[in-house]
Amino acid sequence: MNSLTGVILGAAEAPMIGTMVVLVVVGIIGLVGLLLIVKFARLWLQAYFSRADVRLSELIGMWLRKVDARTIVISKITAIQAGLTLTTKDLESHYLAGGRVPNVVRALVAANRANIDLSLKTATAIDLAGRDILEAVQTSVNPKVIDCPDPEKSRGTIDAVAQDGIQLKAKARVTVRANIERLIGGATQETIIARVGEGIVTTIGSAITYKSVLENPDDISKSVLSKGLDAGTAYEILSIDIADVDVGQNVGAQLQAAQAEADMRRAKAEAEKRRAMAVAREQEMRALVVENESKVPLAMAEAFKKGNLGVMDYYRMKNIMADTSMRDSIAGPKKKE
């Protein structure tokens, strides 16, 4: 009887336990939902009263996808207040791609105020390419000045030599404006500096005399500007101004002096070569004379033996040799005491 009663009581308690489990789960879900609502309530209210149209479910989805919801909401509010139409999905996708959402939104706002044609697709592409889209828009509105050469990476002047051999040291300032259309894949300002420097060197090098460059430095600007140096770059060159031109060294005279020194050394080497050959030839001739003199006694002995030379002939020859030696000593220069 007791066993039957226990079974009946257990069967009656089972629905109650199930109901309690369901209530606990519902309570936990409700608590989590309440916490999420409390967490994002401020952002949602801020977006709601700003007419940014950001739903609470979207905020929770950003939290699950580890997206900074505050960055997305503030950026969208900025865009809406500026009159731009941007969706939450566009901003979130750019954030997930590693882009700088606030930077892109501020660039779009600045472009819209300056009547610059800049779409969200172009702006996000430029940002993902590593370029500062906001700086590019600001540069297109307010052109910037680039020092040529870059004082932080070079000695501070562009050195070139005119045709008369005089060195000139020039400094230039290049005013550029960003070209939004060529910002993707376009060369940076380092290319602009290099091309302008090359143009200045070419222009000075083609001048007949350095005086003409000093008299008309604006000719350098006109010549360099006419070459279209901004082709393929992310900038448009507005002007090139020669800030300073100084006279350097007389490179032509230095080269001529160096050439003369080289010619003199070569001439000395040739003269030394000829002297050495003459000394060697003299030694060779002396050796030949000594060799032939050593043959004279043998020849005389042979002549005595064969009777071709007599004693009186020998003494007569010795007298002639002594007389010749005396005449040579008399005719020669006097020795210094």
Q: Which architecture of the domain at 143-254 does the CATH hierarchy give at level 2?
A: 2-Layer Sandwich
What is the level 1 CATH name of the domain at 143-254?
A: Alpha Beta
Order of helices and strands: HHHHHHHEEEHHHEHH
What proportion of the residues form beta strands (DSSP E)?
5-15%
CATH level 3 topology of the domain at 143-254: Tetrahydropterin Synthase, Chain A
Structural class based on helices, strands and sheet pairing: alpha+beta
Task: Kindly report how far apart the N and C termini lie.
Answer: 166 Å
Q: Low-confidence runs (pLDDT<50, min 5 residues)? A: none
Going by CATH, what is the homologous superfamily of the domain at 143-254?
Answer: Band 7 domain
**Number of E strands:** 4
Biggest β-sheet description: 4 strands, antiparallel
- Binned, the helix content reads 55-70%
Oligomer: single chain
- Determine the mean pLDDT: 79
Radius of gyration: 51 Å
Q: Counting H and I runs of at least 4 residues, what is the number of helices?
A: 12
What is the general shape?
elongated
